[in-house]
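SUBJECT: protein chain
CONTENTS: sequence, structure tokens:
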Amino acid sequence: MITSREEVTTLIMATKVTQAISWKSVAERVGLSKEWTTAACLGQMAFDKTQAEKVGEIFGLSDEAIAWLQIAPYKGSLPTAIPTDPLIYRWYEVVNVYGSTIKELIHEEFGDGIMSAIDFSMDIEREEDPNGDRVNVVLSGKFLPYKTY
């Protein structure tokens, strides 16, 4: 009996590793971006029934696990307030160093509001560079102004 969405993530990761499955190949079979599909497989998004069944096929999941893939998850995947994983910590560092700049420039350009992480897309690509390849990340979120009432 599966008692949490985290158990399904563990099953997915174990199969991914043992069968050398790439997130890109999973996304292509599901018909969604590699970024969103990966987030969903890691338990941060909910698949619809058709998508969940396809993921179930790919990873050999039970009907019970497939049902868990369709449940709205508890979002937030960091195990600690300050991340300890070096790659995730660098993102934390980016927000600490540039967060106020990002906020200031968004408010100057758009006004008082936020960038949505709900109406959102992300693209991660390798950018070849003779001095060492770079990680190119594009985040695109709808601007949501605060309303007055």
